[in-house]
Specification:
Elements (H helix, E strand, L loop, with lengths): L4 E10 L4 E3 H7 L4 H8 L3 E3 L7 H16 L8 E5 L10 H9 L6 E5 L5 H14 L5 E8 L10 H4 L5 E10 L5 E9 L7 E2 L11 H5 L6 E2 L1 H22 L9 E4 L4 H11 L10 H4 L6 H11 L8 E8 L3 E8 L1
Parallel strand pairs: 4-5, 4-6, 11-12
Antiparallel strand pairs: 1-7, 2-3, 6-7, 8-13, 9-10, 12-13
The structure holds oxa(dethia)-CoA (UT7).
Oxa(dethia)-CoA binds next to helix 2, helix 6 and helix 8.
Length: 330
Amino acid sequence: MATQSTVILGTGSFAPERVLTNADLSKLIDTSDEWIRTRSGIRERHIAGDHESTSDMAVRAAKAALDDAGLTPADIDLLIVATITPDLVLPAAACLVQDKLGVSTHAACFDMNAACSGFIYGLDTACAMISSGRYRKALVIGAEKLSPIVDWKERTTCVLFGDGAGAVVVGASDEPNIGLIGTKLGAYGDSAELLWIPKGGSDSPATTESIAAGEHFMKMKGKEVFKLAVRAMDEAARDILEQHGLSADQIDLVIPHQANLRIIEAIAKYLELPMDRFFVNVDRYGNTSAASIPLALDEAKKSGRIKPGDISLLVAFGAGLTYGSALIRW
Ligand code: UT7
């Protein structure tokens, strides 16, 4: 029996109102607009307010995606929030979103922690659950309030990150070979300490000393992450193209994780594709982790960069280090 296709029925995104520019940052720490732009391509990022949580941003993006799909919260029976910054350790952000959005208590709700690759992991999971026939319509949200886990005194990391959310609604279609046509997921668990939060988990709960040492903030070995990111994203892209008998040139638009313009340019070079085949908004949002791809996808779609029949390639890497790629035929 042929497996049902799973398609994206609507997209939405949300970014907090407050914009923090490179010039603003240069007043807080020893950095400059020139350094940040040339090393990362970032010009500004959005920062959530004190009373604006990950689940609040997720709800805003989800509402926009539901409107775009012409659906209501009552239609949803599966809700996945990809995030590394849930409002609380317990319960899952997905349950808070369910409540705030008014999704049925019969819907399955859970979080997905695969860092910046989380949205692709969540999308793959949702599509598999829908093609099993046991779920009908899913909301897959990537939402992050990274600003509280960033050390604003650490100039090598704080300039890179921002807050925001993106969402898609996924459902089944009888049309064959459309929607999510393939995914490739993986991880290099042996490189976990390249990008991590050393303390505050169950293995080493936060103490006065660990907090004073800033060990509850994100730590990153930038150069090593950069190299592994390029390798992992290039491989994830090549693997999925090969699996589906496609050449890079057949991809209409690549929507990469928006971490650093130089990483995206390196992938373009390896895939021998011009930069105009890549959707880039890292300049306006910085790295929003799991929110980055759905936010970019929504902007790409709403700005007319994606048309019926197009093939898009999503590709990401993140803490873990995880990686993932997905092919979508629209
Ligand atoms: O989703 C995964 C998220 N992580 C990433 O995507 C990170 C991947 N890595 C990167 O994007 C890059 O490695 C960075 C943008 C983080 C850094 O770029 P880099 O070219 O690897 O710079 P670097 O770390 O080698 O630093 C070069 C210099 C150093 O000074 P010295 O030692 O050469 O005197 C740094 O101290 O730049 C200095 N520096 C800064 N200067 C001004 C580091 N951060 C800053 C800053 N402003 N914000």
